[in-house]
Amino acid sequence: MEVRETVELTEKEERIFQRLLDVVDHFDLGTQLRVAGGWVRDKDFCTKVKEYQELIGEKQKEREKQKEIIIPCNPDRSKHLETAKMLIFDAEVDFVNLRSEKYSETSRIPTMEIGTAKEDAYRRDLTINSLFFNINNNSVEDLTGRGINDLKKGLIVTPLPAKATFLDDPLRVLRAIRFAARFDLTLSEELKEAASDEKVKSKLGCKISRERVCQEIDLMMSGKRPVQAMSYIRDLGLFFVVFAFPEKSNPPVFDKCDWCCVSHFEAAWNVAYSVPSGVSYPLLLDEQRQLYLYSALFIPLRNMFYLDKRSIKIPVTSYIIQDSLKWKACLAEAVVSIHAAIRNFAELVLLFESNNVALGTLKERMEDEYLDIPTDIVKRVYAGLILDEIKDLWRVALLISILSYPEAENARETLRQQDELHRRKQKYIRVERSITYLDLDGLWKCKPLVTGNDIMRVMQVKSCPLIGEWKKRVFKWQLAHPKGTKDDCIEWIKQSHSKVEFSTW
């Protein structure tokens, strides 16, 4: 890995740094300024910056004044030291002193004290994060003596012994994994051994809030190499710590469950984001990525349930997302809905891909004594009914379904075969285009041609328990007659109703 030991500053960075140095010179502060991760922070220095800017006639705009805030300590939120924040040349800058820290046995919240630059460097989670840029002398400082060398070697290493570092703050295990995946680096052997330690895993499970765990996982998911991150979590034995399961499930957690989940996750990533598609548009929208990846990761768990305190069956996936990761209920509901739609979409894929599917059988399932569906329109009606249930999530559900079916005897090996993944990707593209060609995308947003009141008026009744059934029937009629008008639909209802009344008479 090529690493430069100097820093090339942008024009904006140079302006910001020079402004800070002007403040030091003007007030004769003698302050050493360093950039570490974010900006070097100090509340008093921030006040001087504001005073200096006013002295030279640069009064901040109202919107900037709102940003001149002091952020107090908040240990419950893992905020251990008071910091200051302000805008300089439209860039948000935080200030704080260098510090050292000490940890207790039961908490990841350290006792903070003002420290030296070297103490501050050694307290950091990884050597690659311990590098400072000294603004005063325009140089990179490697106070642990390892940061630059570890970057060159492509290694993720802790400044102090890894096990002690992780026992102090187990969240650093997940941060190490995230940085390794983000920059395509390798975890050191000492770090992997420490991360796999049972005591460290226990501390990670009980000492770190689920919200902080979720935050790290989501950063991994939104990065460039989420498969690498999930693979590390699996290989280090952290899967069931990060994705905590309910105490009992039916069926019970099966052997190699973590390997199976990550295999599906890897396949999903390769299909949507790695394997060349031969098309100029993305398979999924950016906002669907998170939902798609979580749905793929938990595919093997889709038939697992547990009983809550009221003895109600709850999907294990829902527990992991809501209780283990503390995500909002809407994400859990969406993933569960996608999993529930897999079989319907598998049948739909077969319908579009094969000429041997018995359209007659499917036609009979959707028809009744009032509604006759032309054979050549059966695919449109069936696809429309499925899409109406899942709505905007249909592309995610379709791709997840194609990943899952046909289920291979050895899923882990099959889903690693690039030619198999390419075939499934091309299948998705064909079916997605067929659905779009049938003008079904967004059909759930269209208003029905007739309302419940229209139906009651045609039938000449004030109320009828079967109106709900007729509304569903009307929806099928609309799918079968995409160019039909309201008058056409009303005429069909009249004829159907009269025919049945006459038959009954």
From TrEMBL:
<feature type="domain" description="Poly A polymerase head">
    <location>
        <begin position="34"/>
        <end position="156"/>
    </location>
</feature>
<dbReference type="GO" id="GO:0003723">
    <property type="term" value="F:RNA binding"/>
</dbReference>
<dbReference type="GO" id="GO:0001680">
    <property type="term" value="P:tRNA 3'-terminal CCA addition"/>
</dbReference>
<dbReference type="InterPro" id="IPR043519">
    <property type="entry name" value="NT_sf"/>
</dbReference>
<dbReference type="GO" id="GO:0016740">
    <property type="term" value="F:transferase activity"/>
</dbReference>
<keyword id="KW-0808">Transferase</keyword>
<comment type="similarity">
    <text>Belongs to the tRNA nucleotidyltransferase/poly(A) polymerase family.</text>
</comment>
<dbReference type="Pfam" id="PF01743">
    <property type="entry name" value="PolyA_pol"/>
</dbReference>
<dbReference type="InterPro" id="IPR002646">
    <property type="entry name" value="PolA_pol_head_dom"/>
</dbReference>
<protein>
    <recommendedName>
        <fullName>Poly A polymerase head domain-containing protein</fullName>
    </recommendedName>
</protein>
<keyword id="KW-0694">RNA-binding</keyword>
